Amino acid sequence: MLLFACQNNDKSLFTIKSNTGINFKNTLTHTPQLNILNYLYYYNGGGVSSADFNNDGLIDLYFTGNQTDDKLYLNQGNLQFKDITVDSGIQNKEPWTTGVTNIDINNDGLLDIYICKIGNYRHIEGQNLLYINQGIQNGIPTFKEDATSYGLDFRGFSTQASFFDFDADGDLDMFLLNHSTHPNRTYGKGDKRKEIDKYSGDKLFENINGKYVDVTEKSKIYQGKIGYGLGASISDINNDGFQDIYVGNDFFENDYLYINQGDKTFKEVISNDNTSIGHTTHFSMGNAIDDINNDGNMDIISLDMLPENLKTYKTSGLEYAYPTYEYYLKNGYSPQYMQNTLHLNLGSSIFSEIGFQSGIAASEWSWCPLIADFDNDGFKDMYITNGIFGATNDMDFINFVSNEKIQKKINQGMSKEDLSIIDELPQKKTANYFFKNNGNNTFKNKTSEDTPNSFSNGATYADLDNDGDLDIVVNNVNEIAHVIENKSINIESSYLKIKLKGSDKNKFGLGAKVKIYSDSLTISQENYSTRGYLSSVQPELHFGLGKVNLIDSIHIIWSDKKYQTIRNIKSNQELTINYYDAFDDYYSIFSTLTKGLLTNTSNLLNFKHKDGSSVEFNRDPLIPYASTNLGPEISIVDVNNDSLEDIFISGGKRQASQLNIQQTNGEFQSSQNNIFEHDAINEDVSQVFFDANNDGFKDLLVVSGGNEFRNGKPLRPRLYINKNGVFTKDSIQFQNIAVNASKVKAVDIDNDGDLDINICSNLQPWKFGVTPTQYIFENDGKGSFKNITSIFAEEFETIGNIQDIVWIDMNGDKLQDAIAVGHWMPISIFINNGKQLELQKNNNLNESNGWWNSVIVEDFDKDGDLDIISGNWGLNSRLNASSKEPITLYSQDFDDNGRVESLVTYYYQGEETPFASKDELVKQMPFLNKKYLSYADFANADFTDLFSKEKLSTSLKKEVYELASCYFKNNGNNTFEKHELPFMAQVSNVFDIVIDDFNNDQFPDLLLIGNNYEISTQLGRFDASHGVLLLNDKKGFFTEKKNQNFNIQGPARSIEKIKINGTDQYIIGINNNTPIFLTKELN
C-alpha cells in the first residue's frame, strides 16, 4: 500500500508490508476497574524499540503492550521477523507497560532493555523492569530481569526513560519521565511543581560505580504531581558540551527545558523566563530534538492535538477565552496553545516557535514525532503517528459525561453496564503524517490519500533491510503493528551510516555529536536511543547526503568532550568510529560563538513600561487581536541643546511618560517628572519633538490611545513648550479634539519653513475595525495650529485605520508626500501637490490590504528612487489571506439586540469560517446555541447557514489580502513590485524597523522588531521574534543574518538609534518591561 508520495515522481516512498511475521497488536479491553473514565491515559498506547539485540547486523524489534504481553521479534533478513519472546526469557505479561528504551547498562557490548510501567494505581502493582542481555545462544539473545540490582526498580507512574551522561564523567545516567494520574479539572498554582510527589514526579538517577542513585532534588529537577510527562528528549541544546533535557507535559503544566549548568544541576528555563523559547504545546505529547535546517543548532519539536480537519477542530475543546487565560498565566503558568510547535534554535539559547509558518502545526491527535532524513536528500523529514480510540476532548461528549449522575457512577465505581458510557466517545482514527523537509525551514505534507487510518502511538525508525534508507515501525491500538518499508534508495541520493564504538563506560557512544561537512551540506546529529514517544532507536546514526558522494570531513564529539576528525569519506557505506582515537577537549579548541554585528548591553534607564492587562476581549471576545498595549514609543532628541542626545519614552495607562537627560558620563537622569505625572492617566503611544514656535528649542507633542477611553481628556493631544530646556504644558492648542491616536508626525506640508502636525488614528474607541478620522494641523509659525484636514487632505481624512506613516518627497518636487499603512487598508501613497494630498492610483498597491503596523522608505537598491518596506501581521499563525480568500470583517447586529458584533472570518482549505470558537460565538449571539445545540451540528453547518446572507451582505465589510511583511520595489514609473521579506521576518508581527548600514558595506540594512501577546487565544500569540537583522544583498533584496548574538525579547514596540559617549547604540521599547539596549560589535 502506497503511503507517501516521492518528491521527484509518483513512485511511493513508503509501503506497509504484510506477512512480515509480526502480529503484535496492542489490544485494549475496558473493564469497570480500568477504563478511559478512571485512568486518563488509558488510550495513550505503547512503544517500540529498534535495536540489534544479537549483534548480527540486523535490527530487531521490541513492542510494549498496555494489557497485552510485550513481544520481541528477531530480524531474519528481507523484512522477515520471528517471535522469540518466550525463547529470550522476556516475561512482561502484567499491565501496564508504557515506554521502552534499549541501553547497554553493563557495557558488555550487548543491548539491554529498560521498560517503564504503571504501579501503585488501582489494581495495578507493576514496577519498572530492566532485562539484562545474557548473551546469544544459537542466534537468540536471552535476558534476565535485574532492575533492583541497579537501583532502577522504580514503582510509580512511569512514561519513558532516557540514558545520557548528564555530568560528563563518561558513564550513563538516567532521566525517568513520569506522569500524574490526578484529575486535571483544577490546575491551582504553578508553584505546585516545586512540591514532591514520589509516584508521578520525574526522576534523575546518577550512575555511581554502576549503581543508579536518585539525585533529583539536588539537581533541581521538578517532581511535582502537576507534571503530566508524556515526552522527553535529550540534547546539547546550547552547544556547551553538557546535555540538556526537554520535557513535554500534558494539560496545564508547563513544558520544562532544563539547561545543564555543568555542576550536576539544571536550570529550568520556561517556568522562570518564557521569553527565550516562547509559547509551547498545551497538551504536549511526544517530542524530538534535532537540527532541521542544518545550521548546527538543535531544534525542538513537540506534538499536540490540533486537528487539521475543520469539523474535528470545531467539535474539539479549544483554548480558554482570553480573560481566563490571563488568570491562568498569573497563577504561574507559561503560555501554551493547542498546536504542534517547532522551536527553531537561533543560537545563544533563544528560539523562534515557527509551527504554523513551517507547515506542521496541525496533524490531528498526534503522538510520536520521528525526525530523520527518510528520503536521503540531506534534510531531516518528519513522520508523525496519529489517532485516539476515544477523543476525550470532544465537546459533545464532555457535555454528556459532565452529567451529575454519570459523574457519581464514575467516582463511586463503575459496573459492566456503565461501560456503555464509553460508547459515546467518538473515535479519531486518522492517518499518520509524513512531512518532507523543503530545506528552507518549511515542510510539505506528503501524506497520500491512500494512507490507512489507524490508532497509532509509539514508533521507531531503522534500516531494517540494510538497503541504505530508514524504514518505520508503528505500534497501534487494536490493530497489528505497521512495518513500513522505505523505497527512497531507488532515488538518486546517497547516505552514510555511522556506528560509534564508545568507551568502556559507554560502549555505544550515547551523547556523541557528529558533524558532517561537504561543499553543499553541513549536517549535525546526536546519538541518543530514546526517540519520539515511548520508543527508542538503535544507537547509531544515519545521514542522508543528497548527491554528495565524497564527504570533506567529519567531526565526532564524544559525551566527555573529546573529539576526532576524519577526512575524505565516501558515501553509501557504514563507518565505525572508535572513541579511543579521540583526544583533546573540543570546546576548548572550537568556539561555538560566532562573530555578530550587534550585542546586548546594559540598560541605562530607570524605567519599566507598565501596561495593564487588556480588557478589550471582555468587551468584544470575537476580535482576533486587541488594540491595547501598543506602547512604548521612544524618541531621541537633544532637549537642552547641550549636544547630547536625550531619551523620551511614553508611559502606559496610569504611568507617566519619562524624559531622560543624558549626562556627560553617558548616564541618564529622569527630568521634569512632575509635568508628565499630571497626565499619567493617559496611555501615551506616540510623540514628536519639533520646534513649534521657531525659538530654537524642540517642543513636544504627545498623543494617547490604547482603546481604553471613549472620549475626553485622556485622548486629548498635549503640547509642551520648551523654554531653554524646561517644558511648560500649553493650555490652548489641540483642546478641541479627542483622538485615539496611533502616530504623530511633524512635517512642513506647505514649504513655509515651519512644521505642521499630522495625527493618525487606528480606531474609533470600542468599535473594532470602524474607520476613524485622520488629522492635519497647519502651523502659523508661532505655535498656533489649525485643523485643515478636510480642505487639504479630504481622501486622507477617512483613508482607514492608520498604524504608521512616513512623510518624504517621493517624486522629487520638494514637497513632502505621505505613505500611510494600517489595518484593513492598502499601502496608501498620498502625493502632495502643494494644495492638497492626492491618493496615488494605479501603483500596484490597490490590493495590498493588510494588518500593517510599520513602514519605512529608502532607496534600498540605489537606483535613484524610493522603495517601501512595511511590517505586517506575519505568516506564523493559523490565519492566511489572499485577494481570492481574504480575511473578512463583518460588522453587524447579527442577533438584533441593538449591539454590533465583530465577526472575523478566514478561509481554511477553501471554506470560509469564523476563527472564533462556538463557545465564544454563542456568548455574543445566543441564537446560534438555540439553532445548533450540539457541537457536531455547529461544525457541519456552512458559514451561510450560521449567518444569513442578508445579514452578511448588509454588514460593514473590510478585508485583508496580505499578511506577509513586504518589500515594495519602486519600478521608477509610479508602480511598485511586491516581494515578501525573508523567512525570519515573517515569524511575528513587525512593529518597527530601523535602517542602518550594520555591516559597513555602504548599503542600507534593516533591523526588525515585534511580537504581540494581546491576541485571541484561538490564534495563539506572537512571541517568535528576537529581533531580525536583514542585510542588503546589493542586488535589490535582503538576506538573513544567521546566528545572531543579540536578543530583543518580548513585545517590542519601537526602536531608535542614539549616540552615547560617542558610541552608536540602539534602544528598543518593550511593552510591560524595561528597554533593551544594543551596541555594534567591533570588527
From TrEMBL:
Domain (ASPIC/UnbV) ranges: 509-576
Protein name (record): ASPIC/UnbV domain-containing protein
Pfam families: FG-GAP_3 (PF13517), UnbV_ASPIC (PF07593)
InterPro entries assigned to the protein according to its UniProt record, in alphabetical order: Crtac1 (IPR027039), FG-GAP (IPR013517), Integrin_alpha_N (IPR028994), UnbV_ASPIC (IPR011519)
Signal found in the keyword field: yes
Keywords: Signal
Domain of life: Bacteria
Species this chain originates from: Urechidicola croceus
